[in-house]
Structure formats: structure tokens, C-alpha cells
Amino acid sequence: MKDVSDMEIIARVTEGEIDMFELLVERYSPLVFAIAGKRVPPQDAAYVAQTAFVAAWRSLPDYKGRRPFGNWLSVIAMRSCCDYWRQRGAAKNQTVGAPAGIDMQDFLEHAGAERSVSGHESETRRADAAELVNWLLEQLKPEDRLLMDMVYLQRRPLKEAAEALDWSIAKTKIRAMRARHRMRLLIAGMDKS
User: Fold this and answer.
1) CATH assignment, 1-93
2) CATH assignment, 95-193
3) How sure is the predictor about 103, in pLDDT bands with cuts at 50, 70 and 90?
4) Is residue 100's pLDDT more than 60?
5) Which of 9, 18, 88, 135 has the fewest CB atoms within 10 Å, i.e. is most exposed?
6) Residues 149, 39 contacting (CB under 8 angstroms)
């Protein structure tokens, strides 16, 4: 069955051969798990991947084949990641403040310092910076977090991020600008505390 095209499988699934969907799951599990694994905590990646496949199953009759199935499924997987963060954000009462274990005044004073002589100090600063970036991303809306991750951490072109999020280039630029502004305000607020 490996030589059967995605469109043939989709046609058969929508005609009632529901077991054929398993072939799509087998083909695209690595892609969906890679997307989820990069965007949610590792212990929740399987759950998010499963919800992406369930969403794809439900939306399969709407798939028209205008773009490759893998691209279409990638968008669903990324939206499932956004939904995960949205649900997680709604489930907890977020407070704005410094991430646990970081003295923000100390971090901000030393962040721009010359390269440390000690490799240990340099690694500690890198870990602190990574924790700060993760904390800042957690303060953003799920879609903005995904956008910042794609454009600035994965260094993907803005056009590719716009396509993946199904946004216009203009909307993508505006959302990126607003997310950067929000992050700057959060950092400025830490400096005052």
C-alpha cells in the first residue's frame, strides 16, 4: 500500500474505508510528532500529535488537495500546538514576574558582558537566557508564540511562517512586531522590579 497516493487514500477514507486512514497516520506520524515535539513539553507531545490526527480526521472531507497533504496536516498540527498552549494558559492563572530561579537584575547587568573566562559561567548565562526566552514566549498568545518560534528561533522566512499559519504577509509582520513589543515591555517591567 506504500505506492498508493495520499489523494487515493483520502478518497477511499471519505467513501467509507476508514481503516485506510491508518496509512496516513503511519506516513505522517514522524512529521506531526516532530512539530509537536518542538513546540510543547515532551511529555505532552504524543497527546498533541493525537489531537492533530483527530482534527485531521474530522476535517478530511474538507481537504481539496490544493496543497500537499503534508502541508495541510502541518498546519493542523501547529494549530493543535496553539490549542494546547491556549488551554494550558486558561487552566492556570498567570502572574507576570521573573522566571523562577533567576535574579533578573543580575541577569540584565551581566547579559551584555564580555565572554566569560570560565566556561561554566558562560553555560550558566546561556541557560538563564534560554529560560528567560522560554518565559517570555509563554507570556505571548499561542499563535504569536508559534510565530516567534518559527521566525526567530528556527529562522524560517516570514513568508513560510505566514503560509503555515494561513495568514497574509501583512498580518504576519504586524503580529511579529506586536509580539516583539510585548516582549520588550515584559523585560522593561522586570528591570523595575
Assistant:
1) 1.10.1740.10
2) 1.20.140.160
3) low
4) no
5) 18
6) yes
